[in-house]
Amino acid sequence: MDQIKIGKFIADTRKEKNLTQRQLADALSISDKTVSKWECGKGLPEVSLMLPLCGILEITVNDLLTGERVSQLEYQKKAEENMMDLMKENEENKRRMVLSVVCGLITIIAVCALIVIAAYVQLPTAARIALIVFVAATAVAGIWAAVVLDARAGYFECPYCKALFVPTMSEYVKGYHTFTRRRLTCHQCGKTGMCRHRVVRS
Ligand SMILES: [Zn+2]
C-alpha cells in the first residue's frame, strides 16, 4: 500500500470538504498530529477509524486504501488487492514474531551447550578462552537478532490515545517491559506509558 499516495489523497479530499486538519481530527476525536502524520504518508489510519474517516470525506474505504477514487469497473479488483495487502502485512508481522522467539530459543540452547563444553571438556587455556569469547558473541548476536525481529513485528499501542506506532530501536531497547507491554513514549500524543505489543493491525 502506497502510504504517500494515500496521505496525499486524504489531504486533497479534506481540502475539497473545506476542513482543516484540526476540524477533521475533532470530528474523529483524535489529535491533529495524527491527521498530519497520515497526510505526510507516515502512517495509515487504524482500521477502526477508516469508516468514520471515509464517511466524513465521502469516499469508500476502497478509495482510501487505493489513494484515489476507484471507478465502479475497477472496484472489485482494487478491493481484492487492498484486502490482500492488509492480510500480507499482518502475516509478515506474525512471521517476524515467531522468528524472534525461535531465534531467542536457538541462542539459549547454543549458549548452554557451549557453556557445558567449556566447563566439562578438557581444553588448553587458549582454546577455553576462545570458546568463552565465542559463547559471548553468539549470545549477543542471537539476542540482538531476536530483539530486532520483535521490535519490528507489528506495533505498540498507546494506552492513552490508542495510536499504533513502531518505536525506534533505541526507544525499544531502553523501555522497561513485561511480556506483552513495554514502557514507551507515544509518537502521536507524546505521553509515556505501558504500551501493548500488537502483532496484528485491526
Ligand atoms: Zn498516545
In short:
With 202 residues, the chain is an alpha+beta fold. It contains 8 helices and 4 strands, in the order αααααααββαββ.
- Helix residue percentage: 55-70%
- Which residues sit in consecutive blocks of at least 5 with pLDDT less than 50? none
Structural class: alpha+beta
Integer tally of domains: 3
Q: Helix-strand pattern, N to C? A: HHHHHHHEEHEE
The largest sheet is: 4 strands, antiparallel
Rg (CA only): 23 Å
Beta-strand content bin: 5-15%
Instruction: Give the N-to-C terminal Cα separation.
Output: 16 Å
The dominant shape is elongated
Q: Strand tally, please?
A: 4
Number of helices: 8
Largest sheet: spatial strand order: 2-1-4-3
Each distinct ligand: zinc ion
Mean pLDDT: 88
Description:
With 202 residues, the protein is α+β, with helices and mostly antiparallel strands. The protein has three domains: 3-70, Orthogonal Bundle (434 Repressor (Amino-terminal Domain)), CATH 1.10.260; 74-151; 154-198, no CATH class. Helix content is 64%, strand content 8%. It has eight helices and four strands; from the N terminus they run αααααααββαββ. It has helices at 3-16, 21-27, 32-39, 47-57, 61-66, 72-120, 125-152, 169-174; strands spanning 155-157, 164-165, 181-185, 192-198. It has a four-stranded antiparallel sheet, with no helix packed on it. Helix 2 (21-27) packs across helix 3 (32-39) and helix 6 packs antiparallel against helix 7 (125-152). The model has no long low-confidence stretch (mean pLDDT 88). Bound molecules: zinc ion (ZN). Zinc ion binds next to loops.
